[in-house]
Structures are given as structure tokens and as C-alpha cells.
Write a structure and sequence with these properties.
76% of the residues lie in helices and 0% in strands. The protein is mostly helical. Helix 11 crosses helix 13.
């Protein structure tokens, strides 16, 4: 079990200041502040397999995908502290954008299965030419891309162009880490098909099980932690009430 003193020393060493959430929690309930700190170490900054730079970029990306922006700024600052340069940070943001856009294609199941629309979404000659082209050049392709191609070859080609621009042709980050970021964001968005796709790509580019555990831990912590970060105004009121009692 940590102490408030240890929390402050750790925070000042890593962040340069004590995060407002921790500061407020320590004034309301010291036990909760300590638990929050211990989770931060065990599930995020204390992970030992992924490089700290990548861990903080993953955390920043999950925060960008889910909010709030205050959380993303904290992890952005950490990524700079751990050596991320401007292009690497931009790469992480691009991977985040791609994962978010991909997750929204989950709605294709509902659209293509609609009884009134199904007969109109049988696919054109262009659709099947695109699907055959993808199978030849890419191999196995996600089912949602096949559905998108049948719905609109134009949209499918645009999606593939975006995927190439935002995720595949990264400027600086290793492809393995680009897929690690996309995987973490997809986990946080609970998009199982994207999780499977990005997991396969992460492993293909050298990712291993221990790194996957780190990714899952970070995504889980940052996603859950927005309950505290979003409640800063509430915690401030509670701290004021605590101070008057």
C-alpha cells in the first residue's frame, strides 16, 4: 500500500505536479486516492513490457477516443517526457482516428440486414471486382469491408484509402505500435471485429502476449479512469463540503 507522500513524490517525478483528481481525492478520502494511485502504477505506468513512450501514446489515444481532453493532455505530456516526438504523436492520433472510424462501420450489420433495404444491397459488378482485388492483394478481409463494398464501392475505396494514409503508411512509429494503438482504442470502444483485425495485425508485426496484456491493462485503466476525470467539478464540491465540516 502506498502513502500520500509516495503519491506526491511519484506524481511530481513523472508529471511535474500532482494531478487534480488525486489532489481532490486525497482531501475527500485518502484511501480512495491511494487506490487510484496504485491502479495507475499497476495498470498503466507500472507496466514493464511496452516502452514507456508507447504506453503513454496508447493512454493518450484511448483518452482521445473516449474523452475527456484533460486526460489526453496528461498522457501527451508523459509521452513527451518519455521521448515521443511530434511526428510520433501525430501518428498516434492518426491511428486513433482510423480505429474510431472503423468502429462506426459496426452499424453495417443493421443496415445490410434491413428487410426493406436488403434487396437493394446485393452488390454491383464493381463491388465484386473490388472484393476480388482485396482478396488477391490483402488476403482475408474483415466481413464489414465486404458489406461496405456491396453497399458502396466508393465508400469502401475511401475507407481503404484512409486506412492506408492514417494507419499503414505511418511516418515514424513502428507498424507494430500503430496497430497496438488501434487495438487499444478498439478495445476501449468495445468493437470486437476491429479488435480481432488489429490484434491479428499486431501479432503479424511481432506483437506478443505480454505486450497484449499491457495494452489491455492500459486501455482498461484509462477508460475507467474517465469516471474520476469527468467528475472533477463534483469532487471539487465534495472537497469544499469536506472542508466546512
Amino acid at each position: 500500500m502506498s502513502s500520500i507522500e509516495e503519491i506526491k513524490k511519484f506524481a511530481e517525478k513523472t508529471l511535474g505536479e500532482v494531478p487534480k483528481v488525486i489532489d481532490l481525492l486525497s482531501n475527500i478520502d485518502e484511501k480512495t486516492a491511494i487506490e487510484q494511485f496504485d491502479e495507475n502504477v499497476n495498470l498503466y505506468l507500472g507496466r514493464s513490457v511496452l516502452p514507456k513512450k508507447i504506453s503513454s501514446l496508447i493512454a493518450m489515444s484511448v483518452a482521445l477516443a473516449n474523452g475527456p481532453k484533460e486526460s489526453a493532455i496528461i498522457h501527451f505530456n508523459l509521452s513527451r517526457k518519455f521521448g515521443a516526438d511530434n511526428i510520433e504523436i501525430l501518428d498516434a492520433i492518426k491511428a486513433t482516428k482510423m480505429a474510431i472510424m472503423s468502429s462506426l462501420l459496426d452499424s453495417l450489420d443493421i443496415i445490410t440486414n434491413n428487410q426493406l433495404l436488403a434487396k437493394k444491397i446485393q452488390g454491383s459488378e464493381e463491388s465484386y471486382e473490388l472484393i476480388d482485388e482485396l482478396k488477391k492483394n490483402v488476403g482475408t478481409i474483415p466481413e464489414r469491408i465486404i458489406k461496405l463494398a456491396k453497399l458502396s464501392p466508393e465508400l469502401a475505396r475511401e475507407h481503404l484509402r484512409e486506412r492506408s494514409e492514417l494507419l499503414i503508411n505511418s511516418s515514424r512509429l513502428d507498424k507494430k505500435y500503430m496497430f497496438a494503438i488501434a487495438l487499444a482504442v478498439s478495445i476501449s470502444l468495445r468493437d470486437k471485429e476491429c479488435v480481432k483485425t488489429y490484434l491479428d495485425m499486431f501479432v503479424k508485426y511481432g506483437g506478443n502476449l505480454d505486450e497484449i496484456i499491457d495494452i489491455l491493462s492500459i486501455a482498461r485503466f484509462i477508460s475507467g479512469n474517465r469516471a474520476f476525470v469527468n467528475s472533477i467539478d463534483i469532487l471539487s464540491k465534495l472537497a469544499n463540503i469536506q472542508g466546512t465540516q
